Amino acid sequence: MLGLQAFFFYIFAFIAVGAAMMVVLARNPVHSVLFLILTFVAAAGLFLLAGAEFLALILIVVYVGAVAILFLFVVMMLDLDFGRMKQGAMKYAPFGLIIGLVLLAELVIAGTGSAYHPALATATAMPTPPLTEMSNIQALGHVLYTRYIFFFQLAGLILFVAMVGAIVLTLRHKQGLKRQSIPAQVARTPATAIEIRKVESGRGI
Amino acid sequence: MTDFFSTYVLPGLIILGQSVLFLVVLLVLIAYILLADRKIWAAVQMRRGPNVVGPFGLFQSFADLLKFIIKEPTIPASSDKFVFLLAPLIAVTLALATFAVVPVADGWVIANINIGILYVFAISSLEVYGVIMGGWASNSKYAFLGALRSAAQMVSYEVSIGFVIVTVLLCVGSLNLSDIVVAQENGLGTMLGLPNTFLDWHWLSLFPMFIVFFISALAETNRPPFDLPEAESELVAGFMVEYGSTPYMMFMLGEYAAITLMCCLTTILFLGGWLPPFNFAPFTWVPGIIWFLAKVALVFFMFAMVKAFVPRYRYDQLMRLGWKVFLPLSLAMVVIVAFVLQLTGWGALAT
């Protein structure tokens, strides 16, 4: 990593870490979510620098463009009192610290494991062809739709089940509610919709 | 030191110069697109439209710009001031940032990246943040309702826009916007025995998708008949209700930049970008940029006409159209197009 790339790496890294800190420290929950979004964007920048441009943009499309928006709305509408929620938050600091350490240890093991045992170097992931031969998206597609097609389909099914579950939980058929039926409206003809009557003057129908 | 100069400083300055030039041309173009919008709207309603500033009112947009800039900005006392001022900045920056990858002629593009269309899609999916932040920070119920509507609408129609883009990508086999244009030199017209004509472009071979994309583009940019986020009869001005002077102008600029982008995208994906309608003389003598601008103007004319004569949708009808009509239709088209390409071997990636 040289010159400009290192420069941008440090910019994105500092923004990501700073914004992640502010997610926890911000007093207003909406500001917290906005900082979370900034963290996502900075992480996408880091992905770009690592040469994973597809992942970077998918992160933006899916997380920033869809998930975080819903998140933002929930937080905006709930009118949370953050001050009260934060009382006694320091009680949980040790747990947070332990989880953080476990995550850090996992990252270190994944990164440096090959130094302890040479077999670990090949166990991490199937190598993809170099970027000069094949673009990122092609490489990902080749792996995802051939070698990991089962897992890919399974992930899709899980998401599908979750979606159906969410709909079933929230769907309520209210009785006595007049709903608009577009096909019925479109299918109406003058014969079924109107009735022509000859009204004599001075008399009602 | 000379090495540093030739590797970083000189290319950087060249890119900066190109970007500034592109931006200036784009902003002037947007000023005239805004004027064209008002003029077309006026013509349909048998009015004259802006006609006082300059000949035929040609300088109206610049007069408006001056007026907005020298007005005093008002910030509501109970608003979240930082987010309130950040929102229009985000809206306009993101709308203009997408133009970095738009090829306006053969090789005329600031950043010719391989994932151009994905970049455009990603950045335009962020544009909703300007609206949400503006609506929330104003601390007004009208503004917030407008933001709510806008977010749901933009997220919904992004889905069908995504699927339309996927069908085009299946036919092209590349995410590079320039490749998408070049791939339209050969198409359905050549198969029908009429090569080198506008029948080669995707608008004919993917006609249902062209229609879906056009309508989704209207909804995505909050244009009438889908301008519910700023429906003046219900929400005064929607998410922009508390804004005035320069911040308001930036929202407007962002909106029209997004509209121009959607016109450019329609041109690139379906109308053959800078390709001439007939690929022989005298049509090939005209430079590609002229054809590109002419097509963008044509698409924008359609945008303006829709605004002029289609009444506003009801919100539940809008959601129904997005989720129950466009989503199944575009999803089915993705499957059909993939099948046809695989069975016939027409696709670029048929391996």
UniProtKB/TrEMBL annotation, chain A:
GO terms for molecular function: NADH dehydrogenase (ubiquinone) activity; oxidoreductase activity; quinone binding. GO terms for cellular component: plasma membrane. Its EC number is 7.1.1.-. Keywords: Cell membrane, Membrane, NAD, Oxidoreductase, Quinone, Transmembrane, Transmembrane helix. It is a multi-pass membrane protein. It is found in: Cell membrane. Its main location: membrane. It catalyses: a quinone + NADH + 5 H(+)(in) = a quinol + NAD(+) + 4 H(+)(out). Signal peptide: none annotated. Belongs to the complex I subunit 6 family. This is NADH-quinone oxidoreductase subunit J. It comes from Jiella flava.
UniProtKB/TrEMBL annotation, chain B:
InterPro entries: NADH_UbQ_OxRdtase_su1/FPO, NADH_UbQ_OxRdtase_su1_CS. It comes from the Bacteria. The keyword ATP-binding does not apply. GO terms for cellular component: plasma membrane. It is an enzyme of class 7 (translocase). It is found in: Cell membrane; Membrane. Its main location: membrane. It catalyses: a quinone + NADH + 5 H(+)(in) = a quinol + NAD(+) + 4 H(+)(out). PROSITE patterns: COMPLEX1_ND1_2. Its EC number is 7.1.1.-. One of its GO terms (molecular function) is quinone binding. The chain crosses the membrane at residues 12-33, 82-105, 117-138, 159-181, 201-219, 256-276, 288-309, 321-341. GO terms for biological process: aerobic respiration. It is a multi-pass membrane protein. Keywords: Cell membrane, Membrane, NAD, Oxidoreductase, Quinone, Translocase, Transmembrane, Transmembrane helix, Ubiquinone. NDH-1 is composed of 14 different subunits. Subunits NuoA, H, J, K, L, M, N constitute the membrane sector of the complex. Belongs to the complex I subunit 1 family. NDH-1 shuttles electrons from NADH, via FMN and iron-sulfur (Fe-S) centers, to quinones in the respiratory chain. The immediate electron acceptor for the enzyme in this species is believed to be ubiquinone. Couples the redox reaction to proton translocation (for every two electrons transferred, four hydrogen ions are translocated across the cytoplasmic membrane), and thus conserves the redox energy in a proton gradient. This subunit may bind ubiquinone. This is NADH-quinone oxidoreductase subunit H. It comes from Jiella flava. The gene is nuoH.
